[in-house]
Amino acid sequence: MTTVAPTAPASRAEPRLSSAVRNSYDTELSKLMSQLPTRILVLICALGPLAFATVLKVQSGTPSDALFGFWVHSSGFAVSLVILGFAGSWGFPIVAGVLAGDLFSSEDRHGTWKTILTRSCTREDVFAGKLLAAGTCAVGLTFVLGASSLIAGLVLVGAHPLVNLSGVLTSPGRMLALTVVSWLICLLPVLAYTSLAILVSVATRNGILGVLSPLLVALLTQLLDLIGKGVIVHELLIGSAFDGWHGLFTSHPFFGQVAIGSLVSLAWIGACLTVSWRIMRRRDFLTGVSGGGPSWTAPIKVVAIGTAVIAALAFGCSLGPTGVTAYRVASTIGPEFNNVTLLQQQLIGRRVPPNARLYIQPQCNRRGTKAIGPGDWSCTVYVYLPQPNSVPYQLTSVEYDVSVQYNGCYKAQSPPAFLGGQSMLGAAGRQVTNPLFVVYGCFNIL
Amino acid sequence: MEEPSFYPYLSGRSNLRLVAKLDGTGAGAAEIEDALRRVDLDSRADDRVSGYSTGMRQRLGLAAALLRRPRLLLLDEPTSGLDPAGTRAVATLVRDLAAGGVAVLLSSHQIGELEKVCDSYTMLRRGRVVWGGTGAELEAQAPRSAYALFTSHDDHALDLATQVQGIRVQRAARGGLVVAARRESMDELVAALGDARVLIRRLELVVSPLESMFFALTADHEGTALDELEPQQLADIILAGA
Prior knowledge:
The complex is a heterodimer. By secondary structure, chain A is of the alpha+beta class. Chain A has 2 domains: 17-316, no CATH class; 326-442, no CATH class. Chain A has helices spanning 17-34, 36-58, 76-100, 105-110, 113-117, 123-156, 172-185, 187-204, 207-226, 232-235, 256-282, 297-316, 326-347, 416-419; strands at residues 2-3, 162-163, 169-170, 359-366, 375-386, 393-404, 409-413, 423-425, 431-433, 438-442. In chain A, the strands form 3 sheets. A 5-stranded antiparallel beta sheet of chain A has the order 4-5-6-7-10, with helices on one face. In chain A, strands 2-3 form a two-stranded antiparallel sheet. The longest helix of chain A has 34 residues, at 123-156. Chain B folds into 2 domains: 12-118, Rossmann fold (3-Layer(aba) Sandwich); 140-241, YebC, transcriptional regulation domain (Alpha-Beta Plaits, 2-Layer Sandwich), CATH 3.30.70. Chain B is 45% helix and 19% strand. In chain B, the strands form 3 sheets. Chain B has a 4-stranded antiparallel beta sheet, with helices on both faces. In chain B, strands 1-2 form a two-stranded parallel ribbon. The longest helix of chain B has 16 residues, at 84-99. Chain B is elongated. The chains are: A alpha+beta, B alpha+beta. Chains A and B meet through strand 1, helix 1 and helix 5 of A and helix 1, helix 4, strand 2 and strand 3 of B.
């Protein structure tokens, strides 16, 4: 039934693919940035590190369980690295989930698929635009968090040298470069988590599952890190890719974990986005039924598949070579003890000759039933001190409680009675941090 | 167009910006403002869509369509769920669009709404076109319309009506009469009632020519041409519809 006032049709040029994708990208970016959760995330990423550094500044305690946590009062770089460690475990999964977990399912919730697909863009354009927007926001928030944590640390604590993971005091310039590179290394795994959230959002059309999925995978990664000795399954998890930067902070850097983590992240990105696109392409938006079946079955399928995957991972996480062994722990902690002992002597004003070296023999054993793997270890460091007119050395030993993580990083601590307190009187008459009180280190598990 | 969906966390204006961007037609702020003004949403354009009524959403959907500067506009049940004021506003807008050179194809089951805005009609039955023509052609070809007639002496009016050719009349269940007639016959009846000093207290068109045509064409007499239908059959159809 019509009212008609026809005019001659005019030709209208088809928009080029690239411009359609760009339009879709602009639209999706605008939508994302208009949403309250995204704005809250931006605020947290921008101001959270500042608040964290401020709280640390006004209290004497340190988050010493985190890598570099003992040094947050001594060097601003430690603040940024502690935040990076936390972000790798929990922060980035939350960011990815909030940004991408509801990206596709929200269109179902609001009934807006027809609104956007009946405009001058195809589902390919919409899909590409959403991916690019989520990726842009994820990368952007990573930059904001990294920059904010660095600025907060450097402003509130200072650009002071920091003891690296081999016990060597490292210059601020080198620390700055390493810290920046570490944040950059995390971009790929952040995008991998983002892709995972997108996949769940597309497959289940359920925003809650989409938002929670990266967090659940992060939790699973943490749990799997506590069990099993093999490195194969662990290295295939997205969460393990966030450990790659640790190797940069040793005196003899190792890059295997960075390379594997990046490849694994790329594989996750490729797999998640390929499956997402296949689901999206086959979906019938007119009837609301996808090629994969009614939408209410999707969450059940996801839960079933997820359970099977978890079981398989738990079963297989002992496969492959062992990452944490007594030899690796001992051969790392020995040289590091040498370095931090000499550093301590320098800090209290004693002269340490160049290339000075203690004669050290460490002996490490894992507590508990298993002889290898992450967990609590006990290391006895035997030190042979050269004594004038003595034949040949004086022997002393230090007991360290070493908490070794799956990724090869550890925190070693000894009773204060033996090595002194958390701080000590420095050469300039000021209190300085005792580098022997808490020792952080990392070794290559590959 | 039926139940257009927008992002509830964005304002009406922001939603239009998004769809304009997706179109890539280069519709800018001026076009968006113009579209908002034409659908009478300019005063609420910065409110979130989550606070819009159904009618406002329908009008926002129309505004989104207008951003494309359409030469042909397809509207499917555009007044679905609207209050009378909203329905009137949409009808006015459609008429304005048509006057401005836009061809509007409006699909609706609310026939009364169509008669206010359309100047030609196409009727479908089971997916096939069964009739098409202008308003004048409809008037000429439509079967009898139906009227509700309330008078001071319904018995007398009933007698008079039965004497007019081409009229079928019945007592209505709730009082008054139901008269099935073409316009000329109805004029004759009204004149006769006046001559007989029977006062007309209310005369309502309850089944319009468009409705009567629709009932005639879509009722269960498939295969019979409109002209071949018996008057009785037509009247029954109309009265059943009334």
